[in-house]
Write a structure and sequence with these properties.
Blueprint: H1 5-13, E1 22-24, E2 27-29, E3 45-50, E4 59-65, E5 68-74, H2 87-90, H3 92-96, E6 106-110, E7 113-116, H4 119-137, E8 142-146, H5 152-162, E9 167-168, H6 176-186, E10 191-192, E11 199-203, H7 213-224, E12 228-232, H8 238-242, E13 245-247, H9 254-267, H10 273-279, E14 280-281, H11 283-289, H12 295-302, H13 306-318, E15 323-325, H14 331-335, H15 340-353, E16 363-364, H16 410-415, E17 424-428, H17 432-435, H18 439-448, E18 451-456, E19 468-471, E20 483-485, E21 488-490, H19 505-515, H20 526-534, H21 541-545, E22 549-551, E23 569-570, H22 574-578, E24 599-604, H23 618-623, E25 629-632, H24 633-639, E26 646-650, E27 655-663, E28 670-674, E29 715-720
Parallel strand pairs: 8-9, 8-17, 11-12, 11-15, 12-13, 14-23, 17-18, 18-19, 24-28, 25-27
Antiparallel strand pairs: 1-2, 3-4, 4-5, 6-7, 6-19, 10-16, 20-21, 21-22, 24-29, 25-28, 26-27, 26-29
Helix pairs in contact: 4-19, 5-19, 6-15, 9-12, 9-13, 9-15, 12-13
């Protein structure tokens, strides 16, 4: 929220780390215990581990005294936190000690009613039901839904062993359009060199709001050294407020502006001709394809003046190659619009014209660390699944999104028996009742299934409808498979033993697997798994645990041999033609347009919360306890709405009540609702009934080519609540 700028600044300050942590030339220097703050106190034990208050997984130091984690600080040798934590990272202890967290396995015995059971009973009953469903309907009747985390290789291992192809992540409600665009054109999704960029444009990316800690630290430092930052966003987001320029574009029309900027670079010969000739294919096709997309044309669509579009394009080109247009994440190129994949393709092409791939201040692909293979300890190789995926991803109709799936279509698919029935779901690290679309439809789908298992640290809105709830230990109580960032390997390890009857995810997965008749696939420990990965590096989990991070040899990417059919950036990409799209990026209007009596609903993240996982954290709840509906002053006035009024927001699938925030800081055609609120689980006492859930309003919709959820293709009406 704009009124909470102090929070945004505060999280960048970070805390001083206790003790020393370093890795030099492969040598591991263990953490020294911190001295007690006062005479007579026990020494503080410092444990290096990885945060999980968001998906970034910054390195943290857990300070433990008398068996209690009393403080978290950034690990100064971590390549991401650099010794600094955001508000969420600092609040991790309040998730660990949340009185409402799950404390043991539970079985549903009635609506909103659960009874504690033992792990043995939970595993036996779940395993027995899985075997029954597998025999009757086939292994493909089981779907696994997850927010991909470090444990995902073992989740996929379980599904392969069970014989189901149906592992699906949350990408369609986040980043799948962006990934599909860049994977086909670049062979992977590059990142921005935020620290050294000189001219940076974000189309809808709220970099300082949907915080990725290392990126924010770098972009702040770049701005301090003179980098010019441009935010193109219908809303004055946290990043738009921080940037040098804010262009309040009509929502859903970013694609038109990007196409016009490509037109300017080509027609005015401002592109990097040498780079384009050496590292791309399809330039002539791109030139022909964008010939009609002039700044004057784009101005009529976007509401941004033609002169401004031309100026921004010229300034961007003048700063090349230390210039970048952010590939994005959840926003314009991710899962918001029907044209998001075209926007992703256009942004990929625009960056290529800047010649910035591999350049300082441009885009880069990650280096590669040669890890070992754990296949030898994970049992026999499972036979390939014989059934198609439950959602059709990777089929002839959806050839480009097999790795991402279409989670938003789950409710519709459960109603069908073709090509086969879906009867069971295991949901881990995910809350699709609030994080996906059409919440009511998702709830009804869960009620139709024979088996719903939720694995999580908290009773979220989805777990509330599960038959079995299996409580995972928090990130401060468990190990996980290791992680790599750049040329470093990192380890999550427990700072303390589990406070309650919780288990690590690998124990839960193995327990279900053994009970489901898959024992031969789960005769290994997580330490053995990590040791197998670390073997070629001359390290073990026990050694890595001393520091939490080690620097190793990594291979730099070869930009002359990208993982595309041509080995180059494909400005003209035949793969999209085969998927039913255009050869080069082309204009596609949004799927819906608001009328005089309606608004486009846009949503996004805030810097003090992560998805739906932190609304019950007492520290973060105190900073932002609920969301508000942003509505433009002119539209609110006509509706008789003032800031603080309770309003009813309705779409074709549902309605919510929420407080209004009347502001000039949003495009008049849109209203904005921050994601992550509107919990309907009374067992979460702080979060319960605070704010509104956007998922109650968003219909199930699937964007072409990428299969993304197109969440901002939602029209709503707003009225003052009676």
């Amino acid at each position: 929220m704009l009124e909470q700028k102090i929070t945004r600044r505060t999280f960048l300050k970070g805390s001083l780390a206790a003790g020393a942590l370093a890795t030099f030339g492969g040598k591991l220097i263990p953490i020294e215990p911190a001295k007690a703050a006062a005479a007579g106190q026990a020494e503080t034990r410092v444990v290096p581990t990885l945060c999980e208050m968001c998906g970034v997984k910054c390195g943290v130091l857990a300070h433990v005294r008398d068996g209690r984690v009393w403080r978290l600080t950034g690990n100064p040798r971590d390549p991401q936190s650099g010794g600094r934590l955001c508000a969420r990272g600092n609040a991790g202890t309040k998730t660990l000690y949340d009185p409402d967290r799950l404390k043991g396995p539970m079985k549903r015995v009635g609506e909103g009613q659960f009874q504690p059971i033992s792990w043995e009973q939970a595993f036996q009953e779940i395993g027995s039901k899985l075997k029954e469903l597998k025999e009757q309907y086939g292994p493909q009747s089981l779907v696994w839904l997850a927010h991909p985390e470090l444990i995902s290789p073992l989740e996929k291992h379980f599904m392969a062993a069970f014989g189901s192809p149906n592992y699906t992540g949350h990408g369609p409600t986040c980043y799948s359009s962006r990934n599909v665009a860049f994977e086909q054109m670049y062979g992977g999704v590059p990142g921005v060199d935020y620290r050294n960029v000189r001219y940076y444009i974000a189309f809808g990316r709220n970099l300082t709001g949907g915080i990725k800690n290392p990126d924010v630290q770098k972009i702040v430092a770049a701005k301090a050294e003179g980098a010019h930052l441009v935010a193109v966003d219908p809303r004055l987001s946290d990043f738009a407020y921080f940037a040098d320029e804010w262009l309040p574009i009509r929502p859903g029309t970013d694609l038109a502006m990007v196409l016009a900027m490509i037109n300017v670079l080509i027609n005015e010969n401002l592109y990097d001709a040498a780079f384009v000739a050496a590292y791309t294919t399809g330039f002539e096709e791109l030139k022909k394809g964008v010939s009609g997309y002039t700044p004057d044309w784009a101005a009529g669509i976007t509401g941004i003046e033609a002169g401004t579009i031309s100026r921004i394009a010229r300034e961007l080109a003048a700063a090349k190659p230390a210039a970048a247009v952010d590939p994005g994440w959840h926003a314009v190129t991710g899962s918001q619009y029907g044209n998001s994949v075209q926007a992703g393709r256009a942004i990929a092409a625009l960056n290529a014209l800047l010649g910035n791939l591999g350049a300082r201040g441009g885009l880069s692909l990650p280096p590669t660390i040669k890890l070992g293979s754990p296949a030898g300890i994970m049992g026999p190789k499972p036979p390939a699944a014989t059934a198609p995926r439950w959602d059709g991803a990777g089929s002839e109709k959806w050839p480009l999104n097999k790795d991402h799936g279409m989670i938003q279509t789950f409710p519709e698919r459960v109603k069908q028996d073709q090509p086969y029935p879906v009867k069971a779901v295991i949901i881990q690290h995910l809350n699709p009742v609030r994080s996906s679309t059409d919440s009511l439809a998702f709830i009804e789908a869960l009620k139709k299934l024979d088996l719903v298992v939720a694995i999580d640290i908290q009773m979220n809105d989805t777990a509330y409808y599960a038959h079995y709830i299996l409580p995972e230990a928090t990130y401060l109580e468990r190990y996980d498979p290791l992680m790599t960032v750049g040329n470093k390997v990192l380890l999550r390890q427990p700072a303390i033993k589990p406070l309650f009857d919780n288990k690590g995810a690998e124990e839960i997965i193995a327990g279900i697997g053994r009970a489901a008749g898959l024992s031969e696939y789960f005769n290994f420990t997580l330490e053995q798994y990590n040791d197998a990965l670390l073997g070629p590096l001359g390290l073990t989990q026990a050694q890595l645990a001393l520091t939490g991070v080690a620097e190793v040899e990594a291979s730099k990417p070869d930009y002359s041999k990208l993982k595309t059919p041509s080995g180059k950036i494909e400005l003209a990409c035949p793969a999209f033609v085969k998927a039913g799209s255009t050869l080069t990026p082309a204009w596609e209007p949004p799927l819906v347009e608001p009328r005089d009596d309606s608004f486009r609903l846009i949503q996004g993240h805030v810097p003090m919360h992560t998805h739906t996982t932190t609304d019950n954290n007492s520290y973060l709840h105190a900073i932002m306890p609920e969301n508000e509906l942003w509505i433009h002053t002119s539209r609110a006035g006509k509706l008789g709405i003032k800031t603080g009024d309770l309003v009813e927001v309705a779409s074709k699938v549902g309605k919510v009540r929420v407080k209004a925030r009347v502001t000039e800081a949003i495009h008049p055609e849109a209203v904005f609702l921050a994601h992550g609120f509107g919990c309907r689980v009374p067992l979460r006492h702080l979060a319960y009934n605070r704010g509104a859930n956007g998922g109650d309003l968003i219909p199930i919709m699937t964007a072409p080519v990428s299969g993304a959820a197109a969440q901002c293709e939602t029209l709503v009406t707003v009225r003052k609540a009676g």
